[in-house]
Design the sequence.
């Protein structure tokens, strides 16, 4: 978890962590994840953005990598 994530109460998850569960520093899993395929997770996130449940920030840190950060849209965000 980055300093920015800690400061705003957020958490960063990879597709692998959505699928198989969050990892501890020692590599063990905190939970068993969703069990969904990566494609289904991506479709679910895209649908949540489309319906306004999640907002997305796109960061282009370098030309070969686009990083997307999602957060829950709160009532005050509307």
Sequence:
């Amino acid at each position: 978890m980055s300093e920015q994530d800690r400061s705003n109460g957020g958490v960063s998850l990879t597709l692998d962590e959505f699928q198989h569960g969050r990892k501890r520093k020692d590599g063990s899993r905190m939970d068993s994840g969703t069990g969904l395929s990566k494609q289904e997770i991506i479709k679910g996130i895209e649908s949540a953005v489309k319906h306004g449940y999640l907002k997305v920030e796109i960061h282009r840190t370098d030309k070969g990598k686009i990083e997307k950060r999602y957060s829950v849209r709160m009532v005050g965000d509307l």
Q: What stands out?
A: Residues 1-7 have pLDDT under 50 and may be disordered. The beta strands are 54-62, 65-72. The chain is about 30% helix and 20% strand. The two ends are 27 Å apart (CA to CA).
